[in-house]
Amino acid sequence: MSVLIVGSTALDSIKTPHGQYARLLGGSASYAAVAASFFGPVQLVGVVGTDFPRRYLALYRRHGIDLAGLQIQPGKTFHWSGEYEVNMDNRRTLATELGVFEGFQPELPPAYRDAQFVLLANIAPRLQAHVLDQVRRPQFVLADTMDLWLNTALDQLRALLRRVDALVLNEIEAQQLAGHTNLYEAAARIHRLGPRYVIVKKGQHGSVLSGPDGWFLAPAYPLRKVVDPTGAGDTFAGGLMGYLAHNSGPVERKLRRGIIAGTVLASFCCEGPGLSRTTQLRRAEISQRMRELERMTRF
Ligand code: AMP
To answer: Which residues have CB under 8 Å from 110's CB, separation 6+?
Structure first.
């Protein structure tokens, strides 16, 4: 069963205390799609310009990512640049050039419309909703978002939340959306906006799932060196959805393991610039880290 993923497909220029990287393959959908691809097929929806390097198209294909929903339009690919402070937690956006994203209308190829698992990775909520409108009867829809949309498109985001099963967001965003500083109270308030499941990411401190079966507290995989955390959140969401789509049984029974799969993929993502480490991964390395996390948390 394929996972349908819509989001940004970008070229990223990143500055970290360890180095500087120009025009890496980036975007929320790219990170999520590569992560999900370790579990099975992925259908990608996005847009790039004619400047998009062919080797990046080849990389998607190597990961078995279906590109029927990727538009190539005259103009420039979305370009994002950011800079990390020494602690690697604080990030500053230096520039966002929308390019072909400005007039993007995601259209689903007919073969995508029966998707059962849909990841609305971070893009404008209006576009996320437009994709959801075209999917017939999805089994499980996860939406991601960012502070930009809380500040500029809150009404559209709220309308979207009434239509999704799960929302993933970081701690500060959860506090802002709920209007409450306590993480657990914030999650409870977000349920009232629609999603049955709320996943709050806490960076190096892991994540918290709130759902009908109560709380699940997931640690992050302990990493001694972070090279570049760009895309870790998107990778987490992609890994989670890939795991859910390609393992049998009801979603509520596999959600915890899915979150651990996402956690582990995100840890690999942080170990190299852009997608460089993730694209080198072998399936066995993912299982190994999942087992390690299980051992570290069992008592
Ligand atoms: P994360 O580190 O998980 O926040 O994701 C970083 C990725 O988000 C980068 O690859 C960027 O290309 C992408 N990105 C940055 N700003 C935006 C935006 N406004 N809309 C969509 N994607 C974005």
So the answer is: none
